[in-house]
Amino acid sequence: MRISGKEPAAEVYPGIYRITLPLPGKKPGPVNTFVFTGEPVTLIDTGTLQTAPLLRSALNGLGLDFKDIRNIVLTHGHIDHFGAASIIKSESCATIHASGMDKRAIEKGSDISAITFLRFLKMSSVPIKFWFALWIMTLVFRRMARTCPVDTVLGNGDVVRMGGYDAQVLETPGHSKGSLCFFLKKPGIVFSGDHILSHITPNAFVMLDDDFDYPVRMSQTEYYRSLEIIEKLKPSVVCPAHGPLIQDLDRITSLYRKSFARRQELILKIIRSGKNDVYSIARRLFPIVDRKMLILETYLMVSEVFTHLQVLEDEGKVCMERRSGRILVSIPG
Ligand SMILES: [Zn+2]
Asked: What pTM does this model have?
């Protein structure tokens, strides 16, 4: 099985090609889309709006064009995964498949209101001077995608025909509410989206919801539960949405767990040293921040610390008290 290649479209298995498209910034790196050239011609993820011409030319290299795509299957509702779906659909009769949980993000560009977003920043004690820049950042990101309607909602038990293969749908929430993986049983291949990556530990983003004042879903807990679902399949290859293909899943997931445990230890240590709000803990945990990426990094680190604190609170290791819309963290007596 070929697992690398700098050519625009690299075959990873007969009739399945990886097309890697650039993405601004260093992390998570270029995005992998996968095209199944058999009938029905199927694309897993699309890259951004801006890389649609590159996607088209890579497809042309395989003798295909947007008009030939019958299925667009989205691993989740982040812009670098669905950004070009609308353009492809406008030139084809493709059906767009995704999780119901990420439907709003794909159809509206975000699954939460500005108020919910700002409420989380306040809750986390992010300085007010960053709030406006953070909201603007989310609007700039949205320009990398064109929203599109989801035609078919997928969930556990569904099977999608991709090329000549039947792909089993697996709900794997954690990275996003509606993250999906797709499993080809016979060759033992999992398409993991951002749920499993080899070069960085995936983010289990805080799951905000307009219906609640406080995040109720436990992103990290859900993430590790979802990881077990994939581990049990014992895939021979995992095709992630960023970075190289993975043939040693056990090694990768054990690294995730080590880094998870280490983060939690450090967070507890920082709280013991006197830091008692999410932002201060995050700044201590991640002291070196890329200044050019300060705004984005601020959100990523606050989200990560918050999701770890949820687990620590659940285990009785910390208390998270809400006072005037802010969270104050302490170690129970
Ligand atoms: Zn993502």
From this structure: 0.94
Going from the Cα of 176 to the center of ligand 1, the distance in angstroms, rounded, reads 7
Domains of the chain, CATH where assigned: 9-330 (3.60.15.10)
E strand or H helix that includes residue 6: none
Q: How many Å apart are CA 331 and CA 56, to the nearest integer?
A: 54
Q: Rounded to the nearest whole angstrom, what is the distance from the C-alpha of residue 175 to the centroid of ligand 1?
A: 6
Tell how far the Cα of 79 is from the centroid of ligand 1, in angstroms: 8
Q: pLDDT (tens digit, 9 = 90+) per residue, 68-108?
A: 999 999 999 999 999 999 999 999 999 999 999 999 999 99
Let me know: does 80 contact 31? Beta carbons within 8 Å. yes
**pLDDT (0 to 100) of residue 143:** 87
Tokens, residue 83: 């950004």
- Segment holding 42, helix H or strand E: strand 42-44
Question: Residue 35's closest CA among 27, 25, 26, 46?
Answer: 46
pLDDT for residue 6 is more than 70:
no
Task: Label residue 35 exposed, middle or buried (CB < 10 Å: 0-12, 13-18, 19+).
Answer: buried
**Cβ(52)–Cβ(19) under 8 Å?**
no
* Angle, CA of 83, 87 and 89, to the nearest 5°: 110
Q: Six-digit token pair at 147?
A: 């929203």
| CB-based neighbours (< 5 A) of ligand 1, an ion | 78, 194
